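Lesson 9: reading folded outputs for more than one chain in a single document. The general rule is that every protein is listed as its sequence immediately followed by its structure tokens, and records are never interleaved. Here is the first one.
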Amino acid sequence: MDRYVADTHALFWYLTASPKLGANARRAFDEALAGRAEIFIPTIVLAELYWLNQKLGRPLVIADELRRLRSAGQFSFVPFMPDDVLDLDADAAVPEMHDRMIAGVARRMGVPCLTRDASIVASGIVPIVW
């Protein structure tokens, strides 16, 4: 079974069925929906999803989406734990803290990141699927 870590925009564009979601990332979400993949969602992605949704006029009802994600078998949440702070230096090639946290989850898990974020892509820390 394939496994992926979703970044904020990938998850947002998946939830809103946006054409901005890359074809390979869409395939990963489709694989997960079919039970052939698992998508990990770092908790920082949920926080960023909330802010992005606010910024864009609330196209999603976050409480409903969170319920849907929790009940769907293809998604697993990854908490940010205190000891993860000690690991932030390992991902210093990603300058922005939240993106560094997302890339760090993918690196620690050894799975690709569903992202087109330029700083994560350029870092070379993790394989990218977009």
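And here is the second record, again sequence then tokens.
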Amino acid sequence: MAGGGAAGGRLPVPDGGRTDADNALGVRNRKRVLGAWLVDPDEGFAKANYVLPDASAQEQYFADTLFRGALQRVQRANLASKDSRVQTAMNKWEQLVEACPPLCNLRKLRFEGDLDTSDQNEKVLLIAAEFFRRAPKNAAGDLIKGDTVGDSVSALKVAAEEHYGRKVLCASGGLMLKLALQNMRREDGPSGGRALSAPLRQQHLQELAQDSCPFDILGEGWPRVRWALMQAMHQALMRGGEPGRTPRQPFRPALGICWRHLVWLDPATLMPATVRVGAHLHDLLVMFVRPIKDQKGRHKRVPIPIISKHPAGWCGLDLTCPYTALARSWEDRVGGKPWASLADEPFFVAPDGLAVTTDTVAAVIRLAALALRLQPGVFNASALRRGGATDLRAKLGTVGGKQLIVQRGRWCETDVDDIYSRASLEEHAGASLALASAVGQSLEQAAPGWVQPTHFGR
């Protein structure tokens, strides 16, 4: 097998993960922010000069080119979801301005600690929040939820701050706005129960591999890729978009899993890697996964060890072995192509020839649920991630499994012991073996109608 090189690097993503449609929406939003008198167009950040008055035309052009490029980079820094929130907020703001044209716009702070301007801006935002709350959202007269009001008001504030290049509320400001939004949320009462999202666990994967199951894991092409994808997602506790991409976005080597992110060789010997678990050596694959929640690109890829279910040198064929599933998919598709042409190509490719998406993953999981005669509607793209975490907890215990679940699943964790502690390769190898042999039933399955909450009451 080829591909034993370093896999932890990231490639630049110059477009910020945005599509042409996202950029077009951002341009429309900025025009609406100016046209609807949310801000003062003459006080924008881009209006200030950045070269001395005696600069030549060539020097001015050079500085202008760099500044325009920098502004474009700033504008591309926003996620598409942020642009959607601004669009929704501007719809409501335009209704407010039409009803009350003399309303002041948001102004930039003249200096740090400009309480007068901060208080004026907070009053405008309070008026906006109250207007958004009182305006019925439908013919039935239902009110907009407090959380939605907060999102819209925040979007207005952020749009103004991006125009001015500085805050519109002082560090000590915003108290009254915070209390108003807090009380709106209290008026709404507790949020509704979470929809059931069931785990797809190791025992399900084992049932799918049975000859009696109609789910194809043997066929060449997509069936093998699909099976390797499922095994990898269960082993690495992957979110639906982490193997490839989200539905609206193109594949990006910096975000998805490429061929170079599967490392089969020991970097010291360039021989197939192995790891000792108990008395036996097991074949070892390290897959590097980037957490999709890391929208700011601050964190490195996380190495996820995946080992063979049986000791190295075992001559049988166990398709429930995640290492075997990935190795078969690798060997089927590597062909005679030079490694350089594959390194940054997506490893998990759907039948359409493109990298798998969250929707692809969800469709695969629901098809598997149908094959198992389960209700597909209760499974989504995170079912294997949830199933892997459940299996690890069942095998290693609540306390013993916590650290490995946090690390292996790339969950955010603020406890100091989780930040500074380190898990050994052998521990991860044991986790990999545990994932490949776990059985059992979740509490949700044993208690129909109950869905585990995000937080337990104290």
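What the second record shows: The CA atoms of residues 45 and 164 lie 5 Å apart.
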